[in-house]
């Protein structure tokens, strides 16, 4: 796999780890030549993976934050394993030894989420190397962290959902919100970012919304989702009542939490009901209807990294043992 980057002559044979990108040079004397980084082979070292791996992460639309974290993890893993370690020598032992070192041999014990992210990095890196034919098998395939399982949320029963919908119908804003979350499973940030121009009720029997994000980092999570036909009428009543100008919900997320809490109280539901719980209910219902895990991940707008832990939560909620 050949990559084109601007680097100094000294990196031609063996690109050093995390060579800073050169600023675009003006034509003329003194400009930095553009050269091809040699393709990786099984005999290449971990140290040589940095630039091709960074390009892979960018090409697969990982966020800037994820790229920064994964490249930092690669640096730490390389320093621990040895920069001269050949890819063909990489084994499961190298991976587990590094994870154990991070967990037990350093002064500050890392948070569980940090350890989970570093395992996700290893799986991402080794998956890429395997797909490129640089590893004969994936050494990270069967590695799992032992960590406390967080308690599962208490979902609403069908009759409680019906009571909630009836109570929500007393306030058109709450009715719109509850129907939206139970039908699409949007994240809170997606609810707050939903613009009027992204609502399509041209066919009142098949209303839909489009989820968009500013910039390029989350473009792969953009999607179109259909809603039940009754949502169109509720939406029109809501617009007439509240007159939003740009965003569907022109209030704070705290306001929406208050609106939802009031409906929960009217419905006499004792369980803790949040915007996230309604998203969870949507996800579980989708699984019970037979949707695949990958299709659900796309509907929820989750990256592969975030889905690694979330999938197990929804499996256990949908199909308890």
Structure overview:
The protein is mainly α. It has two domains: 129 residues, Orthogonal Bundle (DNA polymerase, domain 1); 161 residues, hpI Integrase, Chain A (Orthogonal Bundle). The protein is 48% helix and 6% strand. The strands form two sheets. Strands 3-4-5 form a three-stranded antiparallel β-sheet, with no helix packed on it. A two-stranded antiparallel sheet has the order 1-2. It is elongated and about 65 Å long. The protein starts with a strand and ends with a helix.
Spell out the blueprint of helices and strands.
Elements (H helix, E strand, L loop, with lengths): L2 E4 L27 E4 L12 H10 L4 H18 L10 H13 L7 H20 L26 H11 L3 H13 L3 H6 L5 E2 L7 E4 L11 E4 L3 H13 L10 H14 L8 H14 L4 H8 L3 H15 L3
Antiparallel strand pairs: 1-2, 3-4, 4-5
Helix pairs in contact: 1-2, 3-4, 5-6, 5-9, 6-8, 6-9, 6-10, 10-12
Side by side, the strands of the main sheet go 3-4-5
Shape: elongated
Rounded to an integer in angstroms, the radius of gyration calculated over CA atoms is 25 Å
Number of domains: 2
Q: Give the percentage of residues in beta strands.
A: 5-15%
How many helical elements? 12
**How confident overall, as mean pLDDT?**
85
CATH topology of the largest domain: hpI Integrase, Chain A
**What fraction, in percent, of the residue positions are helical?**
40-55%
Under the CATH scheme, the architecture of the largest domain is: Orthogonal Bundle
Short description:
With 321 residues, the protein is mainly alpha-helical. It is built from twelve helices and five strands. The chain has helices at 50-59, 64-81, 92-104, 112-131, 158-168, 172-184, 188-193, 230-242, 253-266, 275-288, 293-300, 304-318, and strands spanning 3-6, 34-37, 199-200, 208-211, 223-226.
